[in-house]
Amino acid sequence: MFEYNVFEDRGHRSTGQRPEGYKQIRLHLVYACKHDGRRKARIVAGGHLTDPPLESVYSGVVSLRGLRMVIFLSELNKLSVFQTDIGNAFLEARTTEKVYVIAGGEFGSYKDHIFVIVGSLYGLKTSSKRFHEVLNDVLREMGFFPCVAEPDIWMRAMNADGTVMSDEDKKKEQPAFTYEGVSRPIFGGYYEYIASYVDDLTIGSRDPDSILQYLQVRAKFKLKGSCEINYLLGCDYWRDSDGVLCSAPKQYLERMEVEYERLFGEKPRRSRAPMDPNAHPELDQSEFLDDEQTKIY
Predict the structure, then answer these.
(1) Is the four-CA dihedral 225, 229, 230, 234 of positive or negative sign?
(2) Nearest-angstrom CA–CA distance, 292 and 297
(3) Which residue, 239, 238, 279, 274, is CA-closest to 253?
(4) Residue 50: partners with Cβ closer than 8 Å, 6 or more residues away
(5) C-beta separation of 157 from 186 below 8 A
(6) Model pLDDT, residue 241
(7) Which residue spans within 127-239 are E strands per DSSP?
(8) Which of 143, 271, 293, 296 fits a disulfide with 289 by CB distance 3.0 to 4.6 angstroms?
(9) What is the phi/psi pair of residue 79, to 5°?
């Protein structure tokens, strides 16, 4: 937490001044065990104790249809498709909420200190939006602009030699057509793409390493899992013997089969459709499930 400057120390509660106009909340720890055995602990703010914000806290994500379109266009234009994950993403942003906590024993020598929360800690109502704004600013600095139809698909025009097309270069291009008063040029270059799903980025570029380096060195993001796309948002990606990029939720289905066998003691029956073509669930007169069965299904 101190590495990310999440807290501002106002001193011990016996001598420090509680910030005027700020609300005291609590912190708690959330523990998780990943599918690969890794364990993670995250400190979370009690955002449920704060008043509903007057501003909108909406922060969008790319749709699955939009993500598939980015991958398709990247393949069509012979771009490399990479994935990366921004570690501890929300902590990269600053919060605008006025909240503080009294440190507990888990803070060691800082116990009973007044900590004003200045970072966008997980659990605060506006943290997702604050990080969304930070990421958007970084992408704009890199020359990307949001797609009109999908604001979380970012694009930038590139010259044929791999350099970013400047505004002056764009003005030199001959307009191909005009739509609603806006001229759309055709140029001899190509577009690069970045699709964002909170902290998961999908990159379509001829030089994805340069984009990853900018995010790490200039933007100071802590990236992890940066590689050619292989598993993203529950879907596996691989190339067949002809080099064609394929996708299917292999790992998800494998875990479902294991869980099914654990619950029912037998392997599930394979089917090419999710439901029997003669099924009529609206006519089902069977008994309702009890609490234990509800947990299973």
Answers:
(1) positive
(2) 9
(3) 274
(4) 23, 25, 97, 99, 124, 125
(5) no
(6) 94
(7) 145-146, 153-158, 175-179, 182-185, 190-197, 200-205, 223-228, 231-232, 235-239
(8) 293
(9) -95, 150
Assign 239 to helix, strand or coil: strand
Asked if 45 and 123 count as a contact pair (C-beta separation under 8 A), the reply is yes
pLDDT at 178: 66
What are 23's two structure tokens? Answer: 């609300």
Q: Are the beta carbons of 116 and 100 closer than 8 angstroms?
A: yes
Pick the most confident of 42-51, 71-80, 275-284: 71-80
Nearest to 88 by CA among 224, 188, 266: 224
Whole-structure pTM over 0.85, yes or no? no
Query: 211: burial class by Cβ within 10 Å (0-12, 13-18, 19+)?
Result: buried
Token representation of residue 219: 């933007």
SS3 per-residue string spanning 62-116 = CCHHHHHHHHHHHHHCCCEEEEEEECCHHHHCECCCCEEEECCHHHHHHCCEEEE
Instruction: Please tell me the number of Cα atoms within 13 Å of 280 on its side-chain side.
Output: 3
CA 275, 281, 284, 287 dihedral sign is positive
Q: Which two tokens stand for residue 26?
A: 């609590």
CA-derived radius of gyration, the chain: 25
Amino acid at 253: L
Q: Quote the CA–CA distance of 30 and 258 in Å, as a whole number.
A: 26
Would you put residue 24 in left (φ > 0), alpha (ψ -120 to 50) or beta?
Answer: beta
